[in-house]
Amino acid sequence: MLLIDVVTTSSAVAATRSRKQKVAVIADLLSRAAAGPELEVVTSYVGGALLQRRTGVGWRGLASLPDPAAEASLTVVGVDATFERLARISGPGSQAARAAAVTQLFAAATADEQSWLRGLVTGELRQGALDALVQEGLAVAVGLPVAAVRRAAMLAGSTVAIARAAVEGGETALAAIGLEVGRPVLPMLASSAPTVAEALVKVGGEGAVDTKLDGIRVQVHRLGDGGSPADDTVLVVTRSLDDITARLPEVVEVARSLPARSFVLDGEVLALDAAGRPRPFQETASRTALQDGVAGVRVTPFFFDLLHVDGRDLLDSPGTARAAALEALVPAEFRVPRLVTSDVEAAEAFTRHVLAAGHEGVVVKDLAAPYAAGRRGAAWVKVKPVHTLDLVVLAVEWGSGRRQGLLSNIHLGARDDAQPGGFVMLGKTFKGMTDEMLAWQTKRFLGLAEGPTDGYVVRVRPEQVVEIAIDGLQASTRYPGGVALRFARVVRYRDDKAAGEADTLETVKELSR
DNA sequence: TTCCGACAGTGGGGTCGCAAT
DNA sequence: ATTGCGACCCCACTATCGGAA
């Protein structure tokens, strides 16, 4: 199959807003690829992703491209082979070698193929379809229920991994794909609610209120076969299923200490201080990102779910059964603190206690629900406190994609006499804006524009106050105040406040305490 | 007919390792 | 030693489609 066939399909997907239409187009492509060796590559590409996790090529490496080819000749299999080679380049001289390989590949691509390949490599294809619609397309192509495809993909960790089974073995083959210890499962995700009371309603009135820890999500597999310690393999993966076993020996040690030979646990790791209080997220992130492990900071795992233990699959069991099995396997010191209740006031009191202990919030869980791998369902609902600040807009950036032609991303400042203009920048945000607000702010900030612009950032007179919601503050080397906003989003523009009444750096910093 | 769950898009800050300067 | 890039950790929110109610 030629690459141009995938590119043409991608254009057709992007050309319609109807999801059913997108699915039909994807299904057509997949059925044409089904018999060939390129099924996996096409499945991946049509969802906007390379098969290779890392290639060493990003937006910068694609900044200048050779003249495009006149005729389409690239094959899907050939392109994948090129990226496979690219991904293996390393060591001194690797940047030049990668650049040469990129130039060679792109010189053989037509103009359409070039821009599509660029999107594929940078992960910004923006055709309006990702993995979820590919699963639907695959289901249509092979004539099977979407649920069967989706479930197999969740258990195998990806859609690509089950495409061949779907095509060649049909429903029987898909059904045979179960949870396998040692093969990561897509993790269950949570939706969110503003209050514990609303979260409890969402899960049906009664639920487990879990402490939400501010760390790194981990899935821990132990595949002991009862034999020698050499056979006692432990696997630790992140939310995106990357193997980080070698970085977290403490977690491996805890896994080996548990009284079962094989299991799959879901939890969170984080760094604690001597008193057992959580350290800032940045410390956990730093420690977890270190390749060769044990540098100073130790992390501790806290588990909140159990998907399998000694031959027993628990994925489809209700939360109550999984919780019971978890309690039997994992001692309390390595479990997330939990309260099971239907009483709103008890849940709120527990949440206050959790926050006072320095944690991020709570996750309210429906104890009747199974473990819905990969889904962001209503069975788990997170609740985190929100802080708000009144800040001043210092500059705005032109948006892209559907925000093309609109001023989108705003630069946020607090009052600070120590700074030359009287304001110190604390971060940016593009979140929380409705289409109406985008239109309004584009006009408003063009009216406030002053000074030179690079065509991307528009500096404005610091007059517009905006109410910003944040999850908290973090240490920053990027901004002169030494702090940056975490997860900032717009609540509303405040025309009742002048810039001189905005929050100061001092009051912002108070928040961290 | 209205409601709501699922999806995709639009980007944020921080951290590391690596290669080039 | 510093700098820039790529990759990945955490993530919020709105618009839209289409099935459920």
Short description:
This protein has helices spanning 3-15, 19-33, 39-46, 76-88, 94-107, 111-122, 131-142, 146-156, 160-175, 196-202, 249-257, 281-289, 319-329, 344-356, 435-448, 505-510, and strands spanning 191-192, 207-212, 216-223, 233-237, 262-271, 299-309, 312-313, 338-341, 361-365, 380-383, 387-398, 407-415, 423-429, 457-459, 465-470, 472-475, 483-486, 489-494. With 513 residues, it is α+β, with helices and mostly antiparallel strands.
Describe it.
It is a single chain. The chain is of the alpha+beta class and 513 residues long. The protein has 16 helices and 18 strands. The strands form four sheets. Strands 11, 12, 13, 14, 15 and 18 form a six-stranded antiparallel sheet that branches. A hairpin with an 8-residue loop joins strand 11 and strand 12. Helix 1 packs antiparallel against helix 2, helix 2 packs across helix 7 and helix 3 crosses helix 9. The protein is globular and about 70 Å long. The termini are far apart. It binds a DNA duplex (21 and 21 nucleotides) through strand 1, helix 12, strand 13 and strand 17.
